[in-house]
Specification:
mainly alpha, two-stranded antiparallel ribbon, 17 helices, 1% strand, globular, transmembrane helix, transmembrane, membrane, Benzoate_Transporter
Length: 388
């Protein structure tokens, strides 16, 4: 029974993962819902449904495989919906969600996405993950320029604890940051109002024009910019899991809950990396405890979904950015080592890393996908040359 008790570092990793997930994209989701004509009450219901969906799907997948599998909504997909849903009705938006999630389930059932993922070399998967995480590291240290006292104190707390008690380094950074922010008066609590807002069922309407113009691009962006990096993150962290069942289960959650505002349920990359790092647990076989903790925190966030925006506003942005950067530092270092360790694959891995880190968007698809594409082309050309 003791093995199922969640150690505090794992508990903290789960909390930070959920915190980062909401802080980085909650505002985009609100914009997407507003673009479809949702009322503030309906938007709050969307946040409730999304939190509950992420919590349930994370717990189902993690407890089933005993692997740190986190789910997330598609942030690139939400960004696409902000523009794509302009002029659409809420019923048409729900029809798009159902259509896109049905396509994801079909991808899982046919197994073609699993076959594609098996073609990705391990070094390129690690390089892509490092490219995704780089901006979090840069963003963390950039906060020193405007918030030297707050973020400098967090960094010093992290360094000192890293030398004395490494497992609690992120804990120390968080505690020091909260204390300094509170003393500075940067924590704004007057707007907090914890309340449960029930999701509302919306009858879907399927418009062929909307499905073709928004639904298909939304599906492609979700698969290329969210599911592919999420699965590659699992691979880069050393976890081998069957791809097709993950697609079927995550897509099924999105499909069933789409009428309540759950526009997507995807395999997480950035937040998952927090729970897959050595800081979450020194034993890779027990890091699933951090993901399980994240699932519980997602459920709590869902129950109080109507208060998420106010909660995010109460926390200093610099505190969140520094905490996220420090929490991901170990994973970033490990990914860079794996990406560049094999000399024959180093150039292709560097291409993958730099393209992913560049943040470019081509044809509406994010840099993680293009990093894998260009890195894969480089790998194929340079590997054939090396064999010759």
């Amino acid at each position: 029974m003791r093995s199922y008790l969640i150690p505090f570092p794992s508990l903290l990793a789960g909390f930070v993962a959920v915190l980062v997930g909401y802080a980085s994209s909650a505002a985009i989701i609100w914009q997407a819902a507003a673009a479809a004509g949702a009322s503030p009450q309906q938007i709050s219901g969307w946040m409730t449904a999304l939190g509950l969906a992420m919590g349930l799907s994370t717990l189902v997948l993690t407890l089933w495989r005993k692997v740190p599998i986190l789910t997330a909504w598609s942030t690139p997909g939400a960004a696409l919906l902000v523009g794509g849903l302009q002029g659409a009705t809420l019923n048409e938006a729900v029809g798009i969600f159902i259509f896109a999630n049905a396509l994801i389930v079909i991808c899982g059932l046919t197994g073609w996405f699993a076959r594609l993922m098996r073609l990705i070399p391990h070094s390129l998967a690690a390089a892509m993950l490092a490219g995704i995480l780089l901006r979090f590291g840069l963003q963390a240290f950039a906060t020193l320029q405007g918030q030297l006292l707050l973020c400098g104190s967090m960094l010093m707390g992290w360094l000192l604890c890293k030398a004395l008690a490494p497992r609690y380094a992120v804990v120390a950074a968080m505690a020091v940051g909260i204390a300094v922010a509170w003393l500075k008066g940067d924590v704004v609590t007057k707007s907090l109002n914890l309340a449960f807002v029930a999701p509302q069922f919306v009858t879907p309407h399927f418009s062929l024009t909307a499905l073709l113009s928004v639904g298909i691009p939304f599906f492609l962006v979700t698969m290329a910019s969210q599911n592919a990096p999420g699965l590659a993150t699992l691979q880069a962290s050393g976890y081998r899991v069957p791809v097709s069942p993950l697609m079927v289960i995550s897509g099924a959650f999105g499909l069933l809950l789409a009428p309540f505002g759950v526009y997507s349920v995807c395999i997480a990359a950035i937040t998952a990396a927090i729970c897959q790092s050595p800081d979450a647990h020194p034993d890779p076989q027990k890091r699933w405890l951090a993901a399980a903790a994240a699932g519980v925190f997602y459920l709590l966030a869902g129950i109080f979904g109507g208060s998420i925006t106010a909660l995010m506003a109460a926390l200093p942005v610099a505190w969140i950015q520094m905490l996220a950067g420090l929490a991901l530092l170990g994973t970033l270092g490990g990914s860079l080592f794996q990406a560049l360790n094999a000399e024959r694959e180093r150039d292709a891995a560097l291409v993958t890393f730099l393209v992913t880190a560049s943040g470019i968007t081509l044809a509406g698809i994010g840099s993680a996908f293009w990093g894998l594409v260009l890195g894969g082309v480089s790998f194929a050309l340079l590997a054939s040359k090396a064999r010759a």
